Fold:
Amino acid sequence: MALNLIMVFGGVIFAVLFAFLMFVFIIVMASFFRKEKEMDHEPEVSVIIPCYNEEKNIKGCLDAVYSLDYPKSKIEVIVVDDGSTDNTLKILKECRKKNSKIVILEGKHEGKSASLNMGVKKAKKGIIFTIDADTEVDNGSLKKLVRPFARPDVGATNGSCIARNRHSMLEVFQTVEYHYNNLIRKSFSILFRNGIWFFGAFACYKKDVLKKIGYFKKDTMNEDMDVALEIYRGGYKTINVYDALSYTLVPDTYLRFFRQRVRWWAGVLQALHKNKGLFARGSNASILFLFINQYWWSFYAIVSLPIIIYQIFYWLPYNMADFSSLFMYLFRWFSFLGPLNVLYKIPEWGISLYSIFGVLSGIISAILIVISLYTFKDRLTIKNAIGVFFYFPYTIILNTITLISLIKLIFLKKKHFSY
Structure:
C-alpha cells in the first residue's frame, strides 16, 4: 500500500507540473498573436560596465559598445573596476589611449552593487545602460532597448541573453536553457506589459527611477531581480525587448556553473522575500507568476528528486532481463525517447496515471524548447539536438542545485554578490 501511495503522490506532483507547463505553453502561443510596435526614441545614454578581473573580456565588451548603431554623440561610456587583481585596469587604460572619452572609475572591491551605484551617480545621461564585462551586445540592441522609454510608465528594459560559448555539452545545455527562458520572458512581457525574470547583465534604466528607489541594494545576492521588483513597486514597468540581443559567456566548468546557479536561485528568493508585499491581488500577472514560479520550482526540487529515484526503481524489475534491456530502460528514462516510447506503447500498455503526466510534461517542454530555438533564430545543430534530446538529466542537475540553494539560503551569512 505504501508503494502505491508514493506512486500516487508522484502522479499528483507530475499532474501539477503538467498543468503549470500547459499554462506557460498557452501564454507562449498567445504571445505570437499580439504585436506591439514601439515609437522611435533615441535619448542620451550612459553605458556602465562593472568589472572585476575581466582582462580576457573587457576589450571585446568595449569594442562591441563602440560598434553600436547609435549616435556616438549621445553615448558616454563608464567602466567601473571593482579592485581587479589582474590586468583589467591596465587594459582599460590602454583602451582609453585609443578613445579618450572612456571614463574609468576605480572601486575598492565592494561588490557589483557598489560598482553599479558608483557608475550611475557619475553618469550624466538620463538613461543608464548596464552591461557585464563578459557580455557583448548586438549592434542594433541599444536602439531597441531604449524605445519603450518613450512611455512614461516604463522604468527599465532588458533584452535577451544568448550563450556565445558552445563547446562542451554543459555549455550547449545552457544555450538551450537560455533560449527557453528568453522565450518565456518575451511571452509574459508581450501579453502582460511587464517582464518577469530580469537580467541586469544587459539592461537599461531611467536614471531618475534608480535614484527614486535608492539605487542598487547590497542586501541580496541578485541585485538584478531586486532592483526590478523595487522599480515595479515604485510604480513603473520593466519591459523585455526580446529582439535586443547580447551574447554572454556561460560557465564552462561544473563548479562555476554550480556557484552561479546557487547565487541566482538564492538571490531571487531573497529579492522575493524582501518584496513579498507584491504578491497580492493588484499586482501585474507577470509579477504574480514570478512568485508562483520560484516557489513552485523550489517545492518541486524538494519532492521530485526522491520521486524520480523511486519511480526508476519501481519499474526496474520489469526491465532487467539482460544488459541491453537494462541499458535501454535507463536510456529511455534519461532521454526524450522515454516519453515517445510511452506514447507509442499506449495501445499495448494503456494509460498509467503514475506516469502519463510526467510524459506529457516532457513533451511540452521539448516543444517549447524547439519553439524557442526557432524564435531566436538558432539552428537545430547536432549539439542543440542532443541538448534537447537529453534535456531531462540537465533539469535534474538544475533541481539538485535548487535544493542546495534552499539549504544554503537557510544558513546563509553572505547576503550580497561581490563577484
